[in-house]
Amino acid sequence: MTAMRSESSSSDPPGVPLLPPSEPMSSDEVLDAWPVLSTSDRAEAFRLLPRDGAGDFFLGLRAADQLDLLLGMPAAEQRTWMRLLAPDDAADLVQAAKHEDRDRLLALLDDPTRREVTALMAHAEDRAGGLMDPRYARLRADMTVDEAVRYLREQLRERRHTLLYAYVLDAEQRLLGVVPFWQLFIEPGSARIRDIMKTDVVSVSEEMHEEQVAQKFGQHHLKALPIVDAEGRMKGVVTVDDVVDVVREAATEDIQKIGGVEALDGPYLEISLPRMLKKRVGWLSALFVGEMLTATAMGYFEREIARAVVLALFVPLIISSGGNSGSQASTLVIRAMALGEVRIRDWWRVMRREILAGLGLGAVLSVIGFARIMVWATVFHAYGDHATAVAITVGLSLVGVVMWGSLSGSMLPFLLRRIGFDPASACAPFVATLVDVSGLIIYFSVAAVILRGRLL
Amino acid sequence: MTAMRSESSSSDPPGVPLLPPSEPMSSDEVLDAWPVLSTSDRAEAFRLLPRDGAGDFFLGLRAADQLDLLLGMPAAEQRTWMRLLAPDDAADLVQAAKHEDRDRLLALLDDPTRREVTALMAHAEDRAGGLMDPRYARLRADMTVDEAVRYLREQLRERRHTLLYAYVLDAEQRLLGVVPFWQLFIEPGSARIRDIMKTDVVSVSEEMHEEQVAQKFGQHHLKALPIVDAEGRMKGVVTVDDVVDVVREAATEDIQKIGGVEALDGPYLEISLPRMLKKRVGWLSALFVGEMLTATAMGYFEREIARAVVLALFVPLIISSGGNSGSQASTLVIRAMALGEVRIRDWWRVMRREILAGLGLGAVLSVIGFARIMVWATVFHAYGDHATAVAITVGLSLVGVVMWGSLSGSMLPFLLRRIGFDPASACAPFVATLVDVSGLIIYFSVAAVILRGRLL
User: Fold this and answer.
1) A283: distance to nearest CA of chain B, Å?
2) Residue B1 has pLDDT above 50, yes or no
3) What is the rounded CA–CA span in Å between residue A200 and residue B405?
C-alpha cells in the first residue's frame, strides 16, 4: 500500500508509488481513505486487506467501486468475487459496467444465478423490483415445525442467504403467510405452520417506487418485505439494509435539486469537472434567464429610480427577503411531500397556514426595516428629507413581499406536482424568479402610492 | 370510525363525529389518513383496527403518536400496549411524555424491562446508546452448535426479540465473535462455536453519533451492529431498521437548515402556527439584518446610480447570479460533508475545483448576459448611447460574481465546521449576505473602471 496521496483522483493515470510500501491498512482505514485514492491505489489497498475482512469490505462498496476493483483483477479472481455477490448486487454491478463488458461479467456467474441476475436487470432501478433479492426461504402451510426446520436447512445449504422470515407459499407460489425465523426455534416441533403463521402480510409490488418502499419500511418497522405480483405470487424480498441507501440517495438528490443542481451521480470529489459543470450550468442558466425579467421590471420603473435614487438602495434588501421567505416555504413543503406528510389535497390547509405565517414574518421584518431606516435617518441624516416616507414604503413593501414569497413558495410545489413535475427539481428557479420580479413590482407600486407628491 | 375531517388538526378539541360510523378502515388506510386525523379520531380508528394488525400498527408509529394513543386508553389496556414495546422504543415513548407522566408510564413495565428502559434513557438521544436494544442473543465460545441452539431457544422463550446474530461473549461480557443465526442451522451439531464464529467484528461505541452509526451500516451492509464499551464489553445492539429513521430525519434536518429554517420537530401540518413562526423568524431576521449591508453598500454608490440609472436595472440580476452559484456550491459541499465524502482536509481540492467551476459557469452567464443587453439595445434601443459599455460591465461583473459565489459558497462550510458550527445550519445566511454585498461591490467597481469618462 502506498502512502495516501491527497492529490490523486480517480481520473489519474495508474501512478508510481510515491513512498516505499508501509504497513497494510485495516478495512476501516482503507474505507476512510477511499474517496481520495486513485484506482490503482485502491486495487493495491484491497489486495493487501486481510482475507477475513476483504469479503465484507467488497460487499460494502458501491456497485461502481466494486466494478472498478473487479476489472483490475486477474480473470481467475474475478470469478470468486463476482460469485460472492447476492443476485441484486450482481445486477447492480453489471448495470454499472459498459455495455461491451456486461456479457463477460455475466459469464462469470453460475447458470441459475445468471438467470436470476438477467431477470433482475429487466427491472427499472428505482422500482421495488430493482431492489429485489430472489433468494428467500419458502415453506408449505401443511408442514410441521420439525419438517420446516429440515426443509429450511436444505435450502440454506444449497444457497446461503440471510434468513429473517420464512414465507409460506401454496402450489401456485401464492403468498399465504409469513413466519419469523426465530419462531420456528421456540414453537413445538409438531405444530403446523398454518397454525403459527401470520396471514396479515404487508407486501409490496414489483412496480412500487423505491421511495414508497422505504416509506413502507418506516411505517411497519420490519426488516424485510415480500414482493408479490398482481396475482399474489411471491417474487422475492427487499431487505431494510438496501432501503437505507435508497433513503440516503433520495435525500441527497432532493438536497441537490433544492440547491439548484441536477442530481450528481456520485461523490462530489469523484465527479470530473466537465461533468460537474454540466450538472450545474443548466439550472444556473435557467435561473439567470428567468432573472433577466428583473431587468425588464426595473426598466419600467427607471423614471422613478432617476427621480428618487434612494429607492434603488433598498432593492436588494426587498427582493432577498422575498426570496428567503419563499425558499423557507418551498423547502418545508417539498420535504413534507417527500415524506408523505403533505398530499396534493392538503393544498388549502397549507395555503391558509402560509398566508398567516407570511403576514407574521413580514410584520417582524417590516418593524426591523422601518426602525433601521429611521435610526440611520436620525443619526446619520441619511435618505434625505423624506426618510419617514421611505421607511413607510420599505416597511409596507416587506409585509407584501414576504407574504407573497411564503405563499408562492408553498404553492408552487403543489402546482408542479399537479402538472406532473418533481416538486424538488423545478421549484427553486421558479420561486426565485417569480418572487424577485413580483417583489420589485410590489415595492415600486407601494412607492408610487406613498411617495407621490413627495419624491415622485 | 368517523369520516376523515380535512380541517381537523392535532390541536383540535376532541371532536363530535360529523358523520355516522362507517366501515372500519384497514391499517394502511388509517396510516394514510393519520396526518389529517384529530387525536380523538385517531384513538377511534385505532380501536376499530382488527386485533391482528393493531400490534404492528402501534409498533410502526412515531413515539409521540404512540404516547397520544396510550394516554387516551383505559389504564388496563395501557399496560398491554406499553409491554409490547422493545426497551429502546419504550424509552423513546417515555421521553416523549411530559415529566409528570413519566413515572406512571414506567410503572406499567415489568421490573427487568423498567431497569433496562431507565438505563437507556440516560443515553443522549442522538448517540448510538440511544438507539440501543439491550436484548440480544449471547453464546459462549466453548459451546457446541447443539448446545448453542438449546441455549438460544431458552433465551428466546424468556424474552422474544428479533434474532439476526448471536454474539459470543467471555465471562467478563467481552465480545469475542459473532455467528449469524442461520449458520447454526447448517453447521454440524458437534462443531464448536469458537471454530465457526467470525472474530473480525465490526462494532460501535455507545457514544458514537447516530449519523456515524448510519454510515457504518452503509459501509458494511449489515443488519445489526453490536455496541461495546471502552473495555470491549457488549452493551446491546443497534438494528438497521432504527437507522432508516435516523437517515431520514438527519436528511430532513439538513434540508430544512439549507432552506433557512430551524429543524422542525414534527410533521409540517402538525406543528402549531406560533411554533412554526418561531422556527422561521430567527433565521429570516438574521438574513434580513445581514442583507441590510446591501443598503449600506448601495449607499456608497448612490452618486454613480444617480448619474447612470441604467446601472441599477441590473443589480437584481447580478446579485441573484452570485447567490445562486453560491447556493449550488454550498449545498453540494454540505451534503458531501454529511455523507463523509468530503473532510476538512479536502478543502484545498474543493477550492481549486470551485474556482475553476465558478470561472466556467460565470463565463457562460457572462455570454448570455452580454448578448441579452446587446440584442435589447439593437432591437429596442434600450440602455442609451453607452449600451455596449454597459453590456461589457455586466458581462465582466458576472464572471467575478459567479466565481466569488462558488468560492465563498464552497469554503464557508469548511470554515464553519472548523470553528465548531454545523455547516448546514449557519451557511445559507452567511453565503447570501456575503455574496450579495460583495457582488454589489464587484459590480460597481467594474462599472467605475469601464464607464469612467462615458457615463460616470
Assistant:
1) 9
2) no
3) 55
Q: Residue type for A420, please?
A: G
> Which of the pair, A303 or A4, is modelled with greater confidence?
A303
CATH architecture under which domain B137-239 falls: Roll (3.10)
Q: Are A247 and B252 within 8 A, CB to CB?
A: no
Q: Which residue of A has its CA nearest to B32?
A: A340
Find which of A37-41, A267-271, B81-85, B401-405 is predicted with most confidence, using mean pLDDT: B401-405
Q: How far is A123 from chain B (nearest CA, A)?
A: 22
Residues whose CB is less than 8 angstroms from the CB of residue B167 and which lie 6 or more positions away in sequence, other chains included: B136, B137, B138, B139, B175, B177, B178, B226, B234, B237
In chain B, which residue's Cα lies nearest the Cα of A253? B335
Q: Does the pLDDT at position B20 exceed 70?
A: no
Q: Which residue has the higher pLDDT, B33 or B91?
A: B91
Q: Give strand pairing partners of B238.
A: B225
The CATH-assigned architecture of domain A137-258 is: Roll (3.10)
ipTM here = 0.72
The answer, yes or no, to whether residue B150 has pLDDT greater than 60, is: yes
pTM score over 0.90:
no
Top mean pLDDT of A380-384, B77-81, B387-391 is at B387-391
The three grid cell numbers given for residue A255, joined into one nine-digit string: 438536497
Q: What is the mean pLDDT of residues B229-253?
A: 86
Q: Can you list the alpha helix ranges (DSSP code H) found in B181-272? A: 181-186, 193-196, 210-220, 240-258
**pLDDT score for B23:** 59
Among A299-308, B44-53, B104-113, B153-162, the least confident range: B153-162
Determine the Cα–Cα distance for residues B210 and A153; give it in Å rounded to an integer.
Answer: 36
Q: Where in chain A is the domain with CATH 3.10.580.10?
A: 137-258
Say if CB A151 and CB A193 are below 8 A apart. no
Question: Residue A298 and residue B312: Cβ atoms within 8 Å?
Answer: yes
How many angstroms away from the CA of B288 is the closest CA of chain A? 6
**Three-state SS for A184?**
helix
- Range(s) of chain A covered by CATH 1.10.357.20: 272-451
- The per-residue pLDDT for range A7-17, each reduced to its tens digit, is 333 333 444 44
Once rounded to an integer, what is the mean pLDDT over residues B176-189? 86
Query: Partners of A138 in the beta sheet?
Result: A167
Cell of B130: 440511544
Cα–Cα distance measured from residue A303 to residue B107, given in angstroms and rounded to the nearest whole number: 75
Residues A27-125, CATH architecture: Alpha Horseshoe (1.25)
> Are A136 and A237 spatial neighbours (Cβ–Cβ below 8 Å)?
yes
* Residue A302 touches chain B, beta carbons under 8 Å: yes
- B312/A294 touch (CB, cutoff 8 Å), yes or no: no
- Return the H-helix or E-strand segment holding A205: strand A204-205
B412 vs A124, more confident = B412
In the beta sheet, which residues pair with residue B220? none
Alpha-carbon dihedral of residues B334, A6, A270, A249, nearest 10 degrees? -40
CB contacts under 8 A, B 64-123 vs A, are none
Helices within A339-386 (DSSP H only): 347-380
Cβ contact, residue pair A255, B56, below 8 Å = no
Candidate from A8-17, A31-40, A143-152, A206-215 with smallest mean pLDDT: A8-17
Nearest to A259 by CA among B415, B256, B330: B330
CATH topology of domain B272-451: Tetracycline Repressor; domain 2 (1.10.357)
CB-based contact A315 B299, cutoff 8 Å? no
Q: Starting from the edge strand earliest in sequence, which strands make up the sheet with A137-139, in order?
A: A137-139, A165-169, A175-180
Task: Please tell me the least confidently modeled range out of A23-37, A307-321, B333-347, B437-451.
Answer: A23-37
d(CA A179, CA A165): 6
Conformational region of residue B420, where left means phi above 0, alpha means psi within -120 to 50, and beta covers everything else: left
Interface touch A316/B440, C-beta < 8 Å: yes
